[in-house]
What we know:
Blueprint: H1 5-22, H2 26-40, H3 46-51, H4 64-76, H5 80-88, H6 93-96, H7 104-114, H8 119-127, H9 139-153, E1 160-161, H10 162-177, E2 182-187, H11 189-192, E3 197-198, E4 201-207, H12 211-218, E5 223-229, E6 233-238, E7 243-249, H13 254-262, H14 265-277, E8 280-283, E9 286-289, H15 302-308, H16 324-329, E10 344-345, H17 359-368, E11 373-379, H18 391-407, E12 412-420, H19 431-435, E13 439-443, H20 452-463, E14 470-471, H21 489-498, E15 502-506, H22 516-525, E16 529-532, H23 544-553, H24 567-574
Parallel strand pairs: 4-7, 10-11, 11-12, 12-13, 13-14, 14-15, 15-16
Antiparallel strand pairs: 1-3, 2-4, 5-6, 6-7, 8-9
This protein binds one DNA strand of 29 nucleotides through helix 2, helix 4, helix 7, helix 14 and strand 8.
Amino acid sequence: MPVHNHEIAERFTRLANLLEIEGENPYRVRAYRNAARTIGGLSANIADLVSEEQDLTRYPGIGKDLAAKIRTLVRSGELPDLTETEERVPTELSDLMVIEGLGPKGVRALYKKLNVDSLEDLEEAARAGRIHEVERFGEKTEKAILEEIEKIRSGGKKRTRLADAEEVARPLVAYLAEAEGVEAIEVAGSFRRRKETVGDLDILASCGDSGPVMERFVTHEDVTEVVSRGSTRSTVRLSSGMDVDLRAIHGRSYGAALHYFTGSQAHNIAVRQRGLERGYKVNEYGIFAHDRDEEPVAGATEEEVYGRVDLPWIPPELREDRGEIQAAEKGALPRLVTRKALRGDLHAHTNATDGADSLRDMARAAAEAGHEYLAITDHSKRVSMAHGLDADRLRRQGEEIDRLNEELNGITLLKGSEVDILEDGRLDLPDDVLAGLDVTVCSIHYRFNLPRDKQTDRIIRAMDNPHFRILGHPSGRAINEREPFELDMERLVEAAAERHCALEVNAQPARLDLRDMDCMLARERGAKLVLSTDAHNTYNLGLLGYAVDQARRGWAEAGDVINTRGLEDLRALLRRG
DNA sequence: GCCGTTTTCGGCCCGACTGTTTTCAGTCG
C-alpha cells in the first residue's frame, strides 16, 4: 500500500504517461501531471491528511475527482483508473517516456508497429535496425535511442547539486561574458530559483548579434557534444555530464526572457494566464497587446513584466506556483531573509573532532566573514568515528574558548556541542554538562531506519530535555545519496514550536536540510529556524548562502531566523523561556 | 480533470529546434 507522497505522485505520473500514449485528452493528462507535481512537493503526508479526513481540494490542481481517487489509493492501495489503463496498454510503456526524444507519439508508434513494450525490447529493436524503418523515425533517432539507453544503464541522469552547478556556472558565465556584443548575461532556470538540485543550466545573454556568443559557447573546451544549435538557442553537453542551454536575446526583451527562462513552468503558466485575462500575450520576447504583434508593450525588465499583470516583482526563489501569485496580489509577499541579515553561525566543528582547523583559525575566519558570533559545536562521544568529545574534553574546550574570548575582538565564540540524539531519545551528554553550554545542536547520526512514529517520538522526547536548543539537519537526507528518514514532519515542527526549539537549515551542499517545503511548514506553524554551515573547516563558513537560499525558498523572513539576532537577543532566545 | 472579479461550461501557455520531411509533427523546456 503506498504511503509516501512520492509513491502516490509516481502512480499519477504513470497514469498520465499511459493515457497520453493512448492519445487521451491532453488536458486530462495534464491534470494528472499537475496533481503529481503538487503531491510530490507537499510537506504534509497525504496518507495522514486522508486519515484525518482533511479536504484535499484546497491543494492546487486537486479537484473533487482527484481527491476521491487519492483517498481510494491511500485506503485500498489501488488506483482503479491505472489498473484499467494497464489492462489496455503495457505499464512499461510509461518507462520508455524517460528516453529523451521519445514522447508519447513515438512510444505509441513503436509499440504498434514493432510491439516494443520494454526498455529491453527497445534496445533489441534499435540494435537490429528495425526502428529506422518505422515512419517518422530515422537513423539518427535510432542511434540517439541506443545512446540514451546506455546512459540509463550506466546510472547517469541524476540532477546536479546546486553547489556543483555553481562551480560550473560561474566560470562559464565569465567566459561567455567576454564574447563580442554581450551586454548582460546571467544564469536563469532552477539555478536562479536556487533549487537544491538543477537538471541543466539555462544561461541567458542579451546581445545585438548572437553569432559571436553562440560560437564562443559551442567551442568551449569543456564541450563534448553540441546537442543543438540555433541563432537564439543552443544546447551543449559538458565533460562533467551537465547540459547547458544558452539563449540569446535583444536587450529590449531581456526582462521577459529572464522571467520566462527562470520559470518555474507552473509559475510562468499562471503569469501568462493573468496576461491573457488582461488582453496580453506573454512570451520570452515581451508582453504583446492582442491583435497587434509588432512592438511589445513591456519586456526590458522583469518588473515591467509583472507590472503588466498587476503584480509586484516576485523573487525567483518563490516562483514555484505555491501561492506566491496570490500573495503578491494581496501585497503579502514575505520580505525574505538575506545573507546580510545573518549575524553569526551556530554550527561548526574544529580539529578536536572531525574538523580540519583549530578553534583559533575558525574564530579568525568567522570574524573575517563578518560574524558577530560563532558557536563551536563539536560532536559528542557517541560519534566515535569523529572522536566525539566526552564531558571532560568538552569542559577543557570550554576553558580554551573562555581564554580566546578574552583575547579576540569583534567575535564571540559560543560554547556548544552537536549532541547526539540517542536511540531512546536521551541526549549523549549529562544534563549538568549541557547546562554549562550556550547552545546545543541536537542531531541524529545513528539508526536512520526507525519506523516513522518511533523516529518522530525519539526526536520529540529529546526536545523534552530543557537543554535541547536546535535540531540539527532534521531530515537526515543526503542529496542524491540518502533519502530523508521517515518522519512526521508536521508533528515534529509543532513539537518544536511548542518547546521553543529551533530547526536548523544546514548549508552543507549535500544536505540543505531542512528542505525548502519544510521551512515553509515551520514558518506556518511558528517554529523558528537557524541557518548554519556545519563547517568542518574555515572555507565551509562561506557556505552560509546555501542555507539562506533554501530558507528563502521556504518563504522565511528575518524574524523567522534566530541567528539574525544580535548576541544578547540570541542568548535570551536560546534560554528557551 | 481543473477552474472561475467576464464563466459552473468551455476554455486550458508558447515558441525553438530537430529529424524526417519537402511543409511539418513531435518533443522539449
